[in-house]
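in:
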């Protein structure tokens, strides 16, 4: 199994600190299920029962939440190596709270809660490392959720756009970068309409704060962008 998925699994922080031989033995203990999905397939649907975490091995997928009025918001975009369901799987909840849809042809590995937490019959030392990595991932996910709440509570579209672009600048260390989301996905993530997002970005370009082409953005005046917050 490792020969087929080793490069993809190496992208997941769940297996950080576990070498190839250890990972191969660990996967034998975990006995994961791997499923292929076509573009636009639903990997998980809100309200469905579940007992596993998922690891995106190939492709791209969106995590979608529906509010009381029926409108959809993209909470996050999953890339190869990303996990989903890791927060809920260890709670008393047994239903997906979000819908996950494949944006490209995708491959997902599912690991059951019992296999992750259960006592390894082979007493493998890497199981402890796996659980430590899981705790770190859940902590980081909590920080991301707090970040999402910050976006939702910000009043102005410009403030949301400025904060997001500054995050990408800090993440990449460059003033020119490629956005990880397309315009529609970014609008959904920031909880604004796509036309409103495009208009605000155009205004910021006209004011000499940023420049952009397609998904590439250049911060022209970093200090001025910071002041938009």
């Amino acid at each position: 199994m490792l020969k087929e998925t080793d490069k993809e699994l190496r992208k997941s922080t769940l297996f950080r600190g576990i070498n190839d031989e250890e990972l191969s033995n660990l996967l034998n203990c975990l006995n994961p299920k791997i499923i292929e999905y076509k573009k636009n397939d639903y990997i998980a649907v809100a309200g469905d029962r579940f007992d596993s975490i998922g690891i995106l091995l190939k492709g791209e997928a969106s995590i979608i939440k529906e509010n009381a009025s029926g409108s959809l918001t993209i909470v996050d975009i999953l890339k190869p190596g990303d996990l989903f369901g890791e927060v809920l799987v260890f709670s008393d909840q047994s239903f997906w709270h979000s819908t996950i849809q494949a944006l490209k042809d995708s491959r997902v590995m599912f690991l059951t809660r019992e296999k992750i937490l259960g006592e390894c019959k082979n007493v493998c030392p890497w199981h402890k490392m796996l659980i430590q990595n899981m705790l770190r991932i859940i902590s980081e996910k909590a920080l991301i959720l707090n970040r999402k709440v910050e976006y939702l509570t910000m009043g102005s579209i410009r403030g949301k756009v400025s904060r997001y672009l500054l995050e990408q600048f800090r993440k990449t260390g460059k003033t020119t970068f490629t956005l990880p989301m397309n315009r529609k996905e970014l609008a959904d993530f920031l909880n604004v309409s796509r036309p409103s997002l495009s208009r605000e970005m155009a205004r910021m370009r006209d004011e000499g704060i940023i420049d952009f082409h397609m998904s590439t953005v250049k911060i022209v005046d970093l200090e001025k962008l910071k002041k938009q917050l």
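note: The domain at 154-227 is CATH 1.10.10.10 (Arc Repressor Mutant, subunit A).
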